[in-house]
Amino acid sequence: RRPADTEIDWKAYMQEVEGFANGTLDYTQLKGDTGPLVYPAGFVYIFLGLYHATGRGSDIRLAQYLFAGLYLLNLLLVFRIYCRTNQVPPYVFFFMCCASYRIHSIFVLRLFNDPVAMAILFLAINLFLEERWSWGCLLFSLAVSVKMNVLLFAPGLLFLLLQRFGLLGCIPKLCICALLQVVLGLPFLLVNPVGYLTRSFDLGRQFQFKWTVNWRFLPEEVFQNRGFHAALLLAHLAGLGLFALHRWHSSKENILTLLKDPAKRKPASPRLTVNNILWQASCVFPLNADAWIVFILFSSNFLGVCCSRSLHYQFYVWYFHTLPYLLWCTPTTKLAHMPKVLLLGVIELCWNTYPSTVCSSLSLHICHGLILLQLWYGTAPTPLSHTPPPSRKPTAMSKKAQ
């Protein structure tokens, strides 16, 4: 039997896209039982397809089968990333697949849009690892158009683009991201541009205290206070700045050298492949070039999650599949494996506590803090004592990277 709350968000999603199916292009007029539509246009098109595939949203069982397929596809994409990085012990994948009731609920029971955005995001990361940066940026922008939480990966992606291509080289990649947003939102922008932008990209939206997972230990008036929100934003920016300066960027040169063409930096790499351009950065601790890309993207997202104004239960999928990597990407002794598994278990317990409590929210912050400390101290730069590894590709610049 399907629990009564299964249909809540799914029904609201179907109501929101039904207006578009009936010809409504004013974004302020698209709404459902849970309130107005607050997601960008990519969400509308994807869930409009689900609307028609499930008989105007009536066949929820079929929708759950489709999301079960999405869950398996998402795991495949995540596993491929982890195989490329070769940092996480195999037994950890059991916890990722079988030990999270909350993740299974988010995907297959409640049919949220968060898993859709994250699956597209993981596909984009796979393309980045294949040096298909333009296609990866296109998919990244598509993921943002489904839900804006994907923007938490954006600082890390911008750093990688600057490191890989320099300022002039990364501008076309950024234009790809921007152009897709314009194309997807064009029908709504032509009718009510202000309404579309304020609804779909509303960064100041207030969250309800009753749903918060991470700030339950605070008084509600503090939780809703704008000053508290500003403090979290400053903490987020400070964390990104510190990681960018001292963990992502390990070269002795000023970080502003990222704005230069990679060929003109000193010392210039012998071949402009991703292996050689990222080699100096990856020497801070033993990561291959693929693992270094993933570290920057995952840590960028994790910093955003730690400083989030509120985490709701479906937001767990924003970083669940990145946690094993963040825990095991740093050097790990045999005795350290068990505490890391324990951290995963405590985080899972916090997300499965409903409603959240003072204890569960405090425990979640403690776990996040421990992971941040491990990332900071476990990735401290070490003296360079070896030469760059040979590139995997013989050409000066891979066509995929153009």
Automatic annotation (TrEMBL):
Transmembrane segments: 37-53, 65-82, 111-129, 135-162, 174-191
Pathway noted in the entry: Protein modification; protein glycosylation
Tree of life domain: Eukaryota
Keyword hit for Transferase: yes
Recorded GO MF terms: dol-P-Man:Man(5)GlcNAc(2)-PP-Dol alpha-1,3-mannosyltransferase activity
EC nos: 2.4.1.258
Function field: Dol-P-Man:Man(5)GlcNAc(2)-PP-Dol alpha-1,3-mannosyltransferase that operates in the biosynthetic pathway of dolichol-linked oligosaccharides, the glycan precursors employed in protein asparagine (N)-glycosylation. The assembly of dolichol-linked oligosaccharides begins on the cytosolic side of the endoplasmic reticulum membrane and finishes in its lumen. The sequential addition of sugars to dolichol pyrophosphate produces dolichol-linked oligosaccharides containing fourteen sugars, including two GlcNAcs, nine mannoses and three glucoses.
The protein, known as: Dol-P-Man:Man(5)GlcNAc(2)-PP-Dol alpha-1,3-mannosyltransferase
